[in-house]
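To: structure subgroup
Subject: Chain for Friday's discussion

All,

I'm putting the inputs and outputs inline so they're searchable in the archive.
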Amino acid sequence: MQPNIKQLTVIVFLVGMTCNSCVQTIEQHVGKMNGIHNIKVSLEDKNAVVIYDSKLQTPATLQEAIYDMGFDATSADSNPQPVLPDTIFLAIPTQSALTSKQICSTLLKNKGILDVKLSSDQKTAVVTFISSIINGKQIMQMVPGVDLSTSAPEVTPGTCEDSSWSQASSVVLRLKVEGMTCHSCTSTIEGKIGKLQGIQRIKVSLDNREAVVVYQPHLITAEEIKHQIEAAGFTASFKKQPRPLKLSAIDLERLRNTQTKGSETALKENSNVNDTKTIVFRIDGMHCRSCVLNIQSTVSALPSVTSIVVSLEKKSAIINYNPNLISVDVLRKAIEAVSPETFKVSLPDEYENVALFSMLASPLKSPHPALKDASQPLTQVVVINIEGMTCNSCVQSIEGVISQKAGVKSIHVSLSNCNATIEYDPLQTCPEDLRSLIEDMGFDASLSELPVGVAQPSAEVQLESHKTEPPSKVSSTHLAKQETKTISKCYVQVTGMTCASCVANIERNLRREDGIHSILVALMAGKAEVRYNPAVIHPSAIAELIRELGFGATVMENCGEGDGILELVVRGMTCASCVHKIESTLMKTNGVLYCSVALATNKAHIKYDPEIIGPRDVIQVVKDLGFTPSLVKKDRSASHLDHKQEIRQWKRSFVVSLVFCIPVMGLMIYMMVMDSQLADAHAHHNMSNEEMEALHSSMVLEYQLLPGLSVMNFLSFLLCVPVQMFGGWHFYIQAYKALKHRTANMDVLIVLATSIAFVYSFVILLVAMAEKAKVNPVTFFDTPPMLFVFISLGRWLEHVAKGKTSEALARLISLQATEATIVTLGPDNVLLSEEQVDVELVQRGDIVKVIPGGKFPVDGHVIEGHSMVDESLITGEAMPVTKKPGNTVIAGSINQNGSLLISATHVGADTTLSQIVKLVEEAQTSKAPIQQFADKLSGYFVPSIVAVSVVTLFAWIIIGFVDFEIVEKYFLGYNKSISAAEVIIRFAFQASITVLCIACPCSLGLATPTAVMVGTGVGAQNGILIKGGEPLEMAHKVKVVVFDKTGTITHGTPEVMQVKFLVESNQLPHNKMLAIVGTAESNSEHPLGVAITKYCKKELESETLGTCTDFQVVPGCGISCKVTNIEALLYRKNEMVEENNIKNVTLVKIEENRDESVQPALIIDAELPTTLTSQKYSVLIGNREWMNRNGLLVKNEVDKAMTEHERRGRTAVL
C-alpha cells in the first residue's frame, strides 16, 4: 500500500428519509461518486456510514451531495476515523488467459480495492483492499486461475511496496473499565495509556464503561495495558480477548528473513561498525509527544534501523541505519506512512553526507531480544521538583507509576527535598514526558535542571551533534520572534465544568500544546480565554482539544465580550476642543478600542483590551492631559431590585381603601339584614305594596334627604369617591399606560369593573333624583372599595415578598471588597511600594496584598505566603482551605491567618462573586415556562372577560323581556314598586358587573412570579442559589439529592460530638482532662482546635483557661506544648463534668515538677493537692502518626474506635 493513500470513514446523520426508496436513491447516487468506496444507509438509525478517499472527497462534499438530493445531512464526528486496509498476494499462473495488466484493471474496477501492484517478474500481484467491503475469497473469484501466493515476491529497495515493511501490524483490544465517575476520569485514562509506547489509538466511553485500544503487540502486551489502567485507580477486565495478530505475507517474509539472517546480520554489524550511517530528517506535522512515540516505535521496528531519536522541538529525526539493507528514500517513506500519515519528511542538503557515528554514539539495536540488553543505550539523569507530597504513600505512588514507564531505569523520590531523581533512556522517553506523568497523578511538577548524561558519547560524537545544532537553533529563535509578533486571542464557551479541578485539568493540558501561549478559564462564566499563535494552531482546533478532555466547547464568535468597559467622570472640560483632545489622545493609546466623551454630562465611555491596558493607565493618560478623571461609582447595593417605594405605595393604597371600606361594609350588612326581615314580613303577613313602601321608607337609612336620595346612597357615595380617586389611583395609571400601548392587563379589568359600577350607580342616583322617586334605587357604591382593598392587599404582599430577595442579593454583594492593596515587587520579590486603590481599578496581572482578616478583592493565584482561607460563603465548604504559592483564590473569601501576595487573573465583572451575583439577578427576572404561558394567556384573557361581560348584559336583557319570571326567580328581594323594565336592566347590569369583578383578582399573573421571587429569595438567604424559574419548576421532580460539600448539610463549623476517655475517671477526672486539653488548644488556629477550646470553656463554664508554653505546631500531625496554672480553674469547679458528645480522645503525658515524685504516663491522682501547687503537664494532641512519632503506641481497640468515627465522616483526634 502506498503511504499517501488515506481512506476514512464518516457517519452522516440524515433527515427527511421516509422509505427504502430514499435509502436506495442515496446509496446509488453517492456510491457512483468518485472516491467513494462504500456507503451503507440505515432508515432506522437515520444515518449513513461512508468509506471514502480523503484525496477526492471530504465530509462537506458528501453532505452537499446528499443535500442536493433533498435531504438534510450533518456529520456526526468532526474527525473522520481512518480505515486500516489489508493486503493479499495473488500468484498469477503462467498460462493465464488474461495478461497481468488486464488482471490489474479488472480488480481495480471493484469497490473496496484500493491498489494493485505487480512484482518485477510479473508472477505476483499485491492487492490492497478494505476488508469491511470485500474479502480475499471474493477477490480470487474475480480473476479465474489466480491463487494465494505462498511466498512473498522479491522486493527491490526503492519500489512502492517498501513502505509496507514499516507498517507494524495492530491489534484491537476491548476492555471493560469500572470506577469512572466523570469525563475527567476518561481523559485521565486516555492521557495515561495514550502515552505508552506501542499504543496507536485509545477511546474511552463513559456511557458504555469500556475502552477500545489499538496497539502494537511487539511493543506492549494486553496485560500491561490492563495493569496500567488499574494503576490509575480503575478496575479493568477484558471484554473480548485481543484479536490475533494478522500477519500479511510481507510480514511473514520479513520475520523469516530476520530469523534466518539474524545471527549473520548481528555478526556483520558488529564487525563492520563503520557500515552504520546516520541521517537527519526534518519532519513537519508533529503536534505532541504521541507523534514522537509513534514515529520512534514504528521506524525502530525496521530490522535495518539500529536507533532513532526524534525531537519535537527541533522537528527532526536522527536515524542510525545500515545503508546495505535500506535506502534513504525508503526511510523517508516509512516515516510518512506512520499513522495518521500526515507527516512531511524532507532531507536538508547539509545532512546528505553526514559523517558516520561511532559505536558509542548509538549502540546497535539487535534484532534478537536476547542481544538487546547486551548493548544498553546512553542513559540520562533528570531531577524533577514535586509539590503536593504529604506522606510516604505519595512517594510510593509516584515511584510505582514512574518505574513502570517504558525507558525508566531507576527512580528515587525524596519527601524531605520534594524532588525525584530519575535515570532514563532518552531514546524511549524524555524529561517533559516524565514531568507530565507526575502531574497527571495530581502533583505539581517542574524540571529543576537539564538532564545529566550517565554514559557520555565520544568527542567525535559530541562534535557531530554540535554540527547539527545551528540550523534548528536559528529556526527556533526565528519562530519565537515570529510568535510574539502574531499572538491572537479567542474565547471558547466551555460546558460540563463542575469544579476547580475541571478548570485545572483544561489549563494544564492546553498549556502543553504547541502554539498556545496562555489560557485562562472562568468556571462560573463557563468561558476560556486563549492566547495562541495562529501560524501553529487555530480556534476550532483549540475547541477540539477541550472536547477531547471530555467537555463541551464552542468558539465564541463575538470576541468583544472580553473587552473592558470604563465609565469616567471627567472634570475640567470647558469646550468641544477639550472633548476632541481627550478622544484623540485615548484613541492613539495602544489597547484603547473605542472612546466617547460627552461635554454636557462630563462623562467618558471607554472600551479597552485588558490584555494591553488597564483602567489605571487610562485614568493616568487623562490626568496627563490636565483633566481630573474619577470612576463613576457603581451602586454596590441591590437597590435596583429594592421594592421599598412599591411597598410604600401599595401599603398607602390598601390603608386608604380599608378606612373607607369598613363603613361601607357595615352599611351593606345592615341593609342585607333589614331587607331579609322585610321579605319575611311580606311573605307571612301578605302586606300590600303601599304598606311595604311605607315600612321601607320608615327605615333610618332609607330616609330621603332629597326626593330620590336616601341616607344610605348618600353615605355610600361619599365613602366611595375617595377610594375611587386615591385608592385606585395607581390602577388607573397602569391601565392607561396599557391601553396606550394597545394591550390589556389585569389593571384594565379592575379599572373597568370599578368604573362601570361607580358610574352606573351615580347615573341611576341622578335619574332617581330627577324623577323625585319615592323608592330609593339599588346602587353598587359598595363594589369599588371592597375590590380595591383586596387587590391592593395582594399587591402589597407581593412586593414585600420581592423585597426580601433583594436583601439576600445585597448580602451577596456586600461580600465584595471595596478597596485593594496593590504592591510593586522588585527582584527576588522585594516589596518596593504599596498603594490603596478602588477594587474596580485592579488590572489583570496586578500583584495584590491581602492581610489576615482581609477579603480577597479579585480572583487570582497565590505567588507568595501561606494561609488558611475561609471560602464557605462562596463554596459552602465549612473547613478553611490551605493556600500556598500556585493555589487559586476566590474574590469575597476571607484570609484568616497569614499575609498573601496574589496575582490577579479575573477582575471586575469576571470574578466568581460577580458572576454569582449576575446569576441571582438573572434568576430574579427570568420567567418560568408556566409563567410565560400565563402571560401569553392573560393577553387574551382580558378582552375575552370583557366580551363575556357584555354578552351577559345583553343575554339577561333579552331573557328578561321574553320571560320576566326567570329574572324574578333569580333577582330575589327586588323592590316591587319599580317597573319590570327597570328590574330587568338592573339585574342584567348586576350580572354583567359580577362577571367583571370575579375575574379581577386573577391569580394567573400573580401567583407564579411571587412564587419564583419568594423561592429564589428564601434559597439565597440560606445559601442556596437557584438559577431561575425553570430549575425551580423542575425541582418537584427531584427524587435524590447528592451533596458534594460537607458544609451544605452541617453547621458550617466543626463541633465536638463525643468524648471517650482511655483512662478511668478515678485516675484522671473529666474536668481536669478538659482543662488541660482546652488550655493546650487555646493557642491553636486550626478549626478543630478552636472547636475543642470552645467546648472545654462551655463545659467548665469559664472564659479563661490555664497557661500554655512551648507551643509547637506540626502541620498535618498535631501540636505539643506545656500546660500550667489549671489548679485554680479546677478548684473553682470541683463538681464532675458530665460526659458529653466529643470527638477527641486525648492521651496526656504528665511531667511533674522536679521537686515532686515522677508519676507514670497517663496516670494522675484524682485528689487535688490541699495547697494549689502548680503542676506542669506535657501535652500531645494529634493523629496516630503524631503519637507514634512521640513514642506512644495506639492500641488496636483505640484504632478501631477511631476508624468507626471516621467512617461516619467525623474527625477523630488523639
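Points worth raising on Friday:
The chain has a mean pLDDT of 76.
The first helix runs from residue 20 to 31.

D.
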